[in-house]
Amino acid sequence: MRDVTGLYREFGDERLPPGQREVERFPVLSMGETPDWNPETWTFDVGGAVETARSFTWDEFRDLPRETQRQDFHCVTGWSKFDCEFTGVTATTLLDTVGVASDAVHVMFHAIDGYTTDLPLDAAARDEVLFAWSYDGDDLPREHGGPLRVVTPHKYAYKGAKWVDGVTLLTEPERGYWEQRGYSVTANPWAEERYS
Predict the structure, then answer these.
(1) If we measure between CA atoms, which residue out of 130, 111, 112, 116 comes closest to residue 183?
(2) 146 phi, psi to nearest 5 deg
């Protein structure tokens, strides 16, 4: 297991970002209802400014090289959970698999329920950004984004889409669901970048 809980040193002086409180339980916050999914028909689609667009089945996605990481999780509503263990595919592994086009600058994450969120390519193409299907050794619970969610320990958690089923690499920035509604584009917890 790789421990990335020291990531905060890149952004601030304290592990707990300002304005956050540490919690023991993992609260559930979502845009809407938990969507249904079928592992037989689910696909994960990668397209846009890539060298090879790909559509992965559930089994194909889980056959990609995996990693388990210990991460901290920061919600924009003011709570943080330390030492979460997530298993999945790193963003760098996924992007290396499809190849990133030279003019790609931005990433849009898409989810089963229609949710979207965006990150600049340099903020998304990090080993700590994980497409996770396991939490603390068990399948990721549906209410927490199972079968697959993005975790972004260097950003507020709305940058990590629940129920994610694809990414599009973009040549110009676009805004996701909450970003269009006034949430911060940068979402740095240590600078308390909650809203635009």
Answers:
(1) 116
(2) -65, 140
Residue 71 contacts residue 15 (beta carbons within 8 Å): no
Considering only CA atoms, which of 191, 181, 188, 4 is closest in space to residue 86?
4
Task: Tell me how far apart the alpha carbons of residues 25 and 64 are, in angstroms, rounded to a whole number.
Answer: 30
What do you get for the CA distance between the two ends of the chain, in Å? Answer: 36
Residue 52 · residue 94 · CB < 8 Å? no
Name which of 148, 150, 144 is nearest 126 in CA terms: 150
Q: How many residues does the chain have?
A: 196
Single out the residue of 98, 58, 83, 59 nearest to residue 1, CA to CA. Answer: 83
Residue 126 contacts residue 92 (beta carbons within 8 Å): yes
Phi, psi (deg, nearest 5) at residue 153 = -65, -15
Q: What pLDDT does 27 receive?
A: 63
Q: List the chain residues with pLDDT less than 70.
A: 27-32
Tell me the whole-structure pTM to 2 decimals. 0.94
State how far the Cα of 129 lies from the Cα of 137, in Å rounded to an integer.
18
What does the pLDDT read at residue 33? 74
- Tell me the CATH class for 2-13+38-170: alpha beta
Q: Give 136's Cβ-side CA count (13 Å radius).
A: 9
> What are the boundaries of each domain within the chain?
2-13+38-170
